[in-house]
Amino acid sequence: MNPATLRPGQHRRPPLRRVAGAIAAALSAGLLLSGCVFSLPLGGSSGGGSTTSSGPNQDSLKSVPKGLESFYSQNVRWSSCESGFQCANIKVPTDYAHPEAGNIVIAAIRLPARGGKKGSILVNPGGPGASGYDFVRDAGKSHFTAKLRAGFDLVGFDPRGVKRSAPVTCLSDIERDESREKVYHYDTDAGLQAAIADNKEIIAKCVEKSGPALGHIDTVSSAKDMDILRALLGDNKLNYMGFSYGTSLGATYAEQFPDNVGRLVLDGAVDLALSNEDLTSQQAAAFEKSLRSYVEDCLGQSDCPLSGSVDDGIRQIQDLVSSVDANPEPADDGRLVTGPTLVSGLYTPLYDDSSWPVLTQALSSAFDGDLSLMLRIADLGADRNPDGTYSSNTGFAFNAINCLDYPMVTDTAGMRAEAARLKKVAPTFGPYFAYGGLNCRDWPFKPVGSPEPAKYSGQSPIVVIGTTGDPATPLAWAEAMRKQLGNASLVTWQGEGHTAYGRSNRCVSTAVDDYFLNGKLPVDGTRC
Fold first, then answer.
1. How many angstroms separate the CA atoms of 507 and 467, rounded?
2. Which among 498, 504, 509, 513 is annotated as catalytic?
3. Catalytic: which of 60, 120, 244, 354?
4. Which of 174, 272, 432, 463 has its CA 20 to 30 A from that of 477?
5. Is 244 a catalytic residue?
6. What does the DSSP 8-state code read for residue 114?
């Protein structure tokens, strides 16, 4: 297989975000039941209605960092929006080292509690680059239990750099389509240089269009934004639920503000001690393992297009990928399906095992020579709408945030050595997760973060959740985070797919709800 990877300006390894539920719903309903009509839940339209003002109470302002008093004491206007929600804009410093130099606006949305309100729960679905605003708007009423929603306001926000909050802006929708059709063969110097040149052009556009916040969208800055949000919501302590990359954000908050931690749930945890290259390698291996689980399940179904043993089925998929990689083909809408696009369509349904039947349907069509369904699945993973517009900037924000959070291997020899390792640990996916360092090779801002174990000195215990068959955040990462935090409890769901709460079983939801509502910490080592 030629080492052709995803296009410059987009992520190599899949994003760490809790998108599985939305994708599963769209895939299952849109593909299996409606003759390939695609629709992600978009929520209601913004509307008029009441406006309320709020600000911090005195207790929530007990520990305001020096120089940030005006941000913590600002008056916030919550207006009715999105059919049953409330929205607000929160000012935060562009650069926390120089808070007087300017500010950006963080977009927030709130689903009010339906019963006796105990406080707020801030929510992040991952990424980095995923919209917490969209997550609460689209899934707040379905992903979280009625019991939890009765007791807490659910508050989503777009972290800095994401969609509505000083977004990373790089390419037009047409340019994004064109970029997704490009393939680069990094085993040749010419292919590598072509990718570098294209990536430089994309980076220049990012700098031109994104504004001064582009160099300040690191995770530590986002964690500091969360403390301002906490205070402005009137909460003495932060209650928070982070999925996937959202666990990195939550753990970073816990390290920065240990005395302000209330009840934190970190689902699909990331090991903060790992380098970007180790994260990529272990994630590639986890996706490979998940693919084997899918193939084993598929072979037991009457409509499975694969045959023989699990190893035989894996080879058949690899042969398909190699064939498309060597000879990209058009889908029914005329767009070209490349090897990287096919691989994206292959790994996206692995986020949720309820999407496996759709993957079976897409593979059946692909083996028959029609790649259209695979392209549509890849579009869902890329947040591309059927009309050709893109509903998010996740890919660009993912790159920009990671370039600030992680030092990366960017030299040719180092990237090629990493590609060889990835192909060895994950023969199907590894070559397509390689060369991520190209995204940051010519990034104009130096990284401000580095891999370090999660540190926490607070008194409030934290809940960490891992899933045995998680392809995006392997269970070992949750085990590592629980150990690093110290004052924490680990809950493990024995299942397939990415994250657990909202898609697993009553054991998990009860453990989380009891923790938030009653302060009951689940027994460390609980298995569901």
1. 13
2. 498
3. 244
4. 432
5. yes
6. S
Which 3-state string (H, E, C) describes 172-216? CHHHHHHHHCCCEECCCHHHHHHHHHHHHHHHHHHHHHHCHHHHH
Q: List the alpha helices (DSSP H) in 233-349.
A: 245-256, 276-298, 310-326, 339-347
* 426: Cβ contacts below 8 Å, ≥ 6 apart: 281, 284, 285, 287, 288, 433
d(CA 331, CA 348): 18
Among candidates 314, 316, 317, 323, which has minimal Cα distance to 289?
A: 314
470 is catalytic: yes
Tokens 């007990």 — which residue? 62
What the block records as the tokens of 166 is 């000083």
CATH of 51-165+219-273+451-527, one of 3.40.30.10, 3.40.50.620, 3.40.50.1820, 1.10.580.10: 3.40.50.1820
Q: How far apart are CA 63 and CA 66, in angstroms?
A: 9
Cα distance between residue 241 and residue 123, in whole Å: 5
For the chain, the structural domain boundaries read 51-165+219-273+451-527
Q: What is the pTM of this model?
A: 0.92
Q: Spot the catalytic one: 218, 235, 470, 513.
A: 470
Q: Any catalytic annotation for residue 302? A: no
Tens-binned pLDDT, residue by residue, of the chain (528 aa): 333 344 444 455 666 655 444 455 555 444 443 332 222 222 223 333 456 656 666 665 667 999 999 999 999 999 999 999 999 999 999 999 999 999 999 999 999 998 889 999 999 999 999 999 999 999 999 999 999 999 999 999 999 999 999 999 999 999 999 999 998 888 899 999 999 999 999 999 999 999 999 999 999 999 999 999 999 999 999 999 999 999 999 999 999 999 999 999 999 999 999 999 999 999 999 999 999 999 999 999 999 999 999 999 999 999 999 999 999 999 999 999 999 999 999 999 999 999 999 999 999 999 999 999 999 999 999 999 999 999 999 999 999 999 999 999 999 999 999 999 999 999 999 999 999 999 999 999 999 999 999 999 999 999 999 999 999 999 999 999 999 999 999 999 999 999 999 999 999 999 999 999 999 999 999 999
